[in-house]
Design goal:
With 554 residues, the protein is mainly beta. It has no helices and 52 strands. The protein folds into 3 domains: 8-373, Methylamine Dehydrogenase, Chain H, CATH 2.130.10.10; 378-470, Immunoglobulin-like; 479-552, Immunoglobulin-like (Sandwich), CATH 2.60.40.
């Protein structure tokens, strides 16, 4: 059987903070080539000192929780919560002294749950829930006495689950569910007797899962799912025999995961995923042989994570992520020493957490967070119309990105491709789409741009947008003033508007073939309301005729 200690003590040192990004090819939903299966691994602690205690981490709701004492292996540890979005760590308990005991925490939906007895190493612990929004800690059980059995708890959707026998260390425990909203606890099993074995439970989506054999200490247990809505218990495996290895199960998104080898205590087990809706079980690994080591799996967000070294019992394992949708397995660490230490992982919200020291089995581990970066799925533009005659640099609208990863930041760029015909007439400033020219509705009233959004991990999504130019009631085009004589020449003043070119023409006879351009074409692009042109060639002439032609700019 696989056994996981609730705490470990050893000396430790500080480790330089790490940040690693790995990119693998992916095909975007719109068929554009990009990068996918990207993840970053960061070290979220930097402990130092000569001794300490460390607990398995848990993650959920954008938080990571664990217990630790970074200065003493005998003094009680405390619980800590790391906020993934801000990178800040908060201490949520103030335990002290050498008498007491604590268990591994679980976290979800802004709550952290654990068991602890901060005053006695032999007396029964109780379960506590910390509301991270208010910092309030609520004791949800009233166990006492020195004979007891308790499991680490789990939490999801406002429910806490654990097993307990608060008065006996030999009789079978039972499973309990506490409702945070109502403060009510229900017992969901009725196990009795002294022969049997049970695992720590897990909870998600109104279902509780565990393994148990209620009649034998040596016979293989089976896995069970309890439905909180119907109170029905379903046995999902049919294991038997006395040669077996099983892990604690985990559950998320209607799937249950565990490892098992039900015919050998020596041969490597494999990992399995059970679909509650269909009743089908899938084997997701093909490990074999007697050399190797594995850890209990975790599941969340369509991913299964575990650590394994399927070829060596002495070399460090590595962490793996299995994607249920694609069937692909990704190795996310590259540990290769023969010494070191690590914890079972947890996963939620496309994050994986664990502790590890990949180079020493006596020096301290630190806690790590692998963040799986998912491809952005859409871009929106707050406004897609601009009035004609606006000066260059006018804002059209603001971009926003729909991305499965909360907290991502994005860079927007104009890119070539389908729909990018008019990219040159626009610019992007931060998240704003701006004009690069002044538009004329009468000339062109629709433009197309292609925009790429790129997240901080380098994954991108592209989309084409149509920008409409709206018509503006224009000032009538006409001559405001005309003066002329043979001494000073002729001066013409006329109304104008942006987006047009104006050309003065001259004739001496008013015949059609006698009209000719004089002076350069004048372009109204600076917001002027009128223009003036003086023809000095008219000096000394008895008469001269003028007209002005207006042409929309392309």
């Amino acid at each position: 059987m696989n056994s996981i200690p609730s705490s470990t003590s050893f000396a430790h040192k500080s480790i330089t903070l790490l940040a690693i990004r790995i990119l693998l090819p992916l095909l975007l939903p719109n068929g554009q080539a990009a990068y996918g299966a990207s993840f970053e691994t960061i070290q979220i602690t930097n402990y130092s000192g000569t001794s300490g205690q460390w607990g398995k981490p848990a993650t959920g709701g954008g938080k990571v929780a664990w217990y630790a004492n970074t200065t003493s292996s005998s003094q009680l540890p405390n619980y800590y919560v790391y906020d993934i979005a801000s990178g800040q760590t908060a201490k949520i308990t103030s335990y002290s002294g050498v008498n007491g005991r604590v268990g591994n925490p679980a976290t979800a939906n802004g709550k952290v749950v654990w068991y602890a007895n901060p005053a006695s190493s032999t007396g029964a612990p109780n379960y506590y829930v910390c509301d991270l929004a208010t910092s309030a800690i609520t004791q949800i059980t009233n166990y006492s006495g020195s004979y007891w059995q308790l499991s680490d708890p789990d939490i999801a959707n406002g429910k806490v689950v654990w097993y307990a026998h608060p008065t006996s260390s030999t009789l079978l425990p039972n499973y309990y569910v506490y409702d945070i909203a109502s403060g009510q606890t229900i017992q969901i099993t009725n196990y009795s007797g002294s022969n049997g074995q049970c695992s720590k439970p897990a909870i998600s989506g109104g279902k509780v899962v565990w393994y148990a054999n209620t009649t034998s200490n040596t016979g293989a247990p089976n896995y069970y799912v309890y439905d909180l809505a119907t109170s029905a218990i379903t046995q999902i495996t049919n294991y038997s025999g006395t040669n077996w290895q099983l892990s604690e199960p985990d559950i998320a998104d209607g799937k249950v995961v565990w490892y098992a080898n039900t015919t050998s205590t020596l041969q490597l087990p494999n990992y399995y995923v059970y679909d509650i809706a269909t009743g089908a079980t899938a084997k997701i690994t093909s490990y074999s042989g007697v050399n190797g080591r594995l850890g209990s799996p975790a599941i969340g967000g369509g991913k299964v994570v575990w650590y394994a070294n399927p070829t060596s019992s002495t070399s460090l394992p590595n962490y793996y992520v299995y994607d249920i949708a694609t069937g692909a397995t990704t190795k996310i660490t590259n540990y290769n020493n023969s010494i070191g230490q690590l914890s079972n992982p947890d996963t939620a919200d496309s994050k994986v957490v664990w502790y590890a020291n990949p180079s020493s089995d006596v020096l301290a581990p630190n806690y790590y967070l692998a963040r799986f970066n998912q491809v952005p799925v859409d871009i929106s533009l707050s406004n897609s119309a601009v009035a004609e005659d606006q000066p260059p640099g006018s804002t059209v609208g603001t971009f926003a990105t729909n991305d499965p990863d909360p907290g991502d930041t994005f860079t927007y760029t104009l890119v070539s491709g389908d729909g990018g015909t008019d990219n040159g007439d626009f610019t992007i400033d931060g998240t704003s789409l701006k004009t690069a020219i002044s538009f004329n509705y009468e000339a062109t009233n629709s433009y197309s741009v292609r925009v790429r959004t790129t997240d901080q991990g380098g994954l991108w999504y592209e989309k084409a947008f149509t920008i409409q130019v709206t018509d503006v009631q224009e000032q009538p085009f006409g001559v405001l003033a005309f003066t002329g004589d043979s001494v000073s020449g002729a001066t013409i003043q006329w109304t104008c508007e942006a987006g047009y070119s104006y050309q003065v023409q001259q004739s001496y006879t008013l015949q059609q073939d006698d009209w000719h351009d004089i002076g350069p074409a004048l372009i109204a692009n600076n917001g002027e309301l009128d223009m003036t042109f003086t023809d000095t060639s008219a000096v000394g002439l008895d008469k001269s005729f003028y007209r002005i032609s207006r042409t929309p700019l392309p």
